[in-house]
Predict the structure.
Amino acid sequence: MAETMVPQSIVTDPEKCAGCLSCQLICSYTHTGRFNPLCAYIRINLRDDYRIEFTEECTECGLCVEYCTYGALQPTGEEE
Amino acid sequence: MKGYAGNILFVNLTDGSIKREPLEEAVARKFIGGTGVNALLAYRHIKAGIDPLSPDNALIMGAGPLVGTLIPGSARVEVTAKSPLTGVIGISNGGNTPGIMLKYAGYDHLVVTGKADKPVYLKIDDDRVEICDADHLWGKDTFETTDALWDELGDNFWISAIGVAGESLVRYALILNNKHSAFSRTGLGAVMGSKNLKAIAARGTRGIEVADGPGFMNLTKELLDKVAAFPLLKEWRTVGFFMAFEPYTSMGYMLGKNNTESAEDIMERFPIKEYLSRVRKGSTSCPGCSLGCKGRVEMQDGKYEGLRFRLSTPAVAVGAFGGLVAVEGFDEVMKCAELSNRYGMDLDSLTATIGFAIELYQKGILTDEDTGGLELDWGTETVRTLLDRIAQRDGFGRLLGEGVVRAAEEIGKGADYYAVHIKGMDLGLGLRGRLSTENFGQATNPRGAHLDRSPSISFMPGRKKESYVKYCRSIGVPEDRVEAVCTGPENFNVARLTRWVEDYNTILFSLGLCHRTPISQHYNLDLFARLYSTATGLEMNPEEIRQAGERAWNLSRAFNMREGKTKTDDFFPERLMKESVTLRKGEIPAADPEMVEQLLNEYYEERGWEADTGNPGPQKLNELGIDT
């Protein structure tokens, strides 16, 4: 399993995450050309708490933030 | 063929064989995927007359060509088998399911046949498909089973599990996915139980490619923007289906106590303010969906303080437990909902069956001798007792685990009159009073009473003719049928419109899309064709797409025809044609049998089916290229 990192430009709030995985879908499509949450550089753990993590490959491109409509991912400094 | 994973996985639990076959382009074009291809596989692999709980039944899971992408609502996966509850084609559709991972692993469809000689689970990990021992899982509830498999395999596997009710062959047992999203209806959990199949765990690393990336993403963004701009988005996320309570109860579609009395007090008994402050903690969404209409329950105080779980439709749980069997208050309703998910029972059929039993007991048709000394009454005490006993098929629970039709046959004494169902499936909405395609479609659906395939703009009264004409054109009604469809006191003929709405919605589900209004209102047949071609690279015009929906619908009816079903099985329940119901605004009369017959005849005519049987004839099947 890839190492995780903490992005400087993204603030996460698992309490708001609904588990839509749009962040993973846009990430995997953009960076691998295929839709698949397991290939994304952001991980959402669907098990219970919808924990949010980023892998070392994350470039902080910000697409995950753009596609999050639940407020679980927000740009640093702009979080509600 | 992009968009598709390209394969069908066959697993025979009797001999342990596992094989893969390609999903042929000709099949994809004729049946699209999901619902449509499932119907074909069911017709091919389930012989007429088999016992649904025997190894001869096939459990079929199917994900359409848009499933697993970012298109709004593209998470709907369908499971099909012969239903142990109804004896006809059993269909259940869910949103957050391993069917998506199945597709990422390389399979659009899974067909499980046979029966394992001991409890097993199916592990699908890309090319590695294994039938694994599940002795350690048997007897566990759905939450425990899923957690155990996550501990064993890792959190990246998505899990379908049955609970004790599936193991004990309750005929309305469900399959629970990732601990919250259910294949609820028609008893497909019992089909898994009959095969000794405790769970399906899937993980796929391949993913889905689309044919025209820029075109597909342009459509995706356009649709995401439309959903985001939907004026009631916030309400759908927070209040969800509670919004439908007022129209549903005031029109008599949603009733209480085994559908015998008004449920108009339900919003007073279950205030939305209390739901938002004490019960609901947040939203839960299906993959790729920006609507988030599922709930995250966390009781803030009271008897079950700290009770936490995710629930597909909290409002449906309130309508079923709080309405049909009169459980008191949010605390007890949510506990019942959690238990029915843990045991793995469809809460709609469960409450329909319990309500039926309570009414029979109060009428003296069931006695203390029948119930083993249980006194049955409306409310929490009886429901909690029966919930446990039914799941375990303990004592009187054995009978109720059979569902209302079989239970009525066994009870005799006229009990069948109180079993309100169509083709063995309890109703989702009432059928007295005003008919829209949504409630009328319960009669004509091959699955039996089923709402999801016939919602349309006709639900809201008072629309102008121009609206219906525009709507008809958007779903593919041919020009020479528009006038006949858009006629009548409300500017639509419910029977004729239902036919076209069914074809259209069959495509919606075959593609793998969601029928919830904030999502589905942005689609139309032309858009289906564009989405299909950009995703798959296969060109199909809107009429070819529509006809694929018609083909799947006819094949599902042909499945039932093989089981001996005819037009009499489409008729409204006798009770609804004899008894009126009293609402606050006055009485809603019983449905008129002559009107019902006329509507059904118009429906068969619109479909080009045989008037005497209500089934597609050889000419129709031939026209659609269906080889029976």
Q: What stands out?
A: The mean pLDDT of chain A is 92. Chain A touches chain B at residues 15-16, 18-22, 25-26, 28-29, 32-39, 45-47, 67, 69-70 (CB under 8 Å). Chain A is about 20% helix and 20% strand. The first strand of chain A starts at residue 4 and ends at 5.
